[in-house]
Amino acid sequence: MDHRRIRKFNTKETYPEQNLDNDFCQAVVTTGGKVVWLRGQCPQNLEDAINIDSHDPVAQTHKIMQNIKQLIEEAGGSMEHLVKVVVYITDVRHREAVYCTMGEYIKGVFPVSTGLVVQGLARPEWLVEIDGTAVIPE
Length: 138
Fold this sequence. Notes:
Blueprint: E1 4-10, H1 11-14, E2 23-29, E3 34-37, H2 57-74, E4 82-89, H3 95-106, E5 112-117, E6 128-136
Parallel strand pairs: 4-5
Antiparallel strand pairs: 1-2, 3-6, 4-6
Helix pairs in contact: 2-3
């Protein structure tokens, strides 16, 4: 099963005024397979839920994307099975840093994406949270 990615684009063209390089698409079509619904991932360890010791949006995003990758792999898939991400940030000024970092993990994947600026997350030290959905072929 291949995921059909409709209207692929890169944020370099969509947001030329920003220093972004993310591969996204407008829609993903899947058939069959195993759906993996990921809880919103925060900058903490999966094993013990301890926060990483950083208030840097880049470091927090790296940890979040590492968690997403690990969870998809534990479910039997890989990052190319990621079909959707929802990005929550607490400060619009962190957008470029978060998206550039996230882009390192999704280069060539082209998930659909929604980004939101929120007033706060579950812990005040969290600057970013990302949830996702993956569909792993049967």
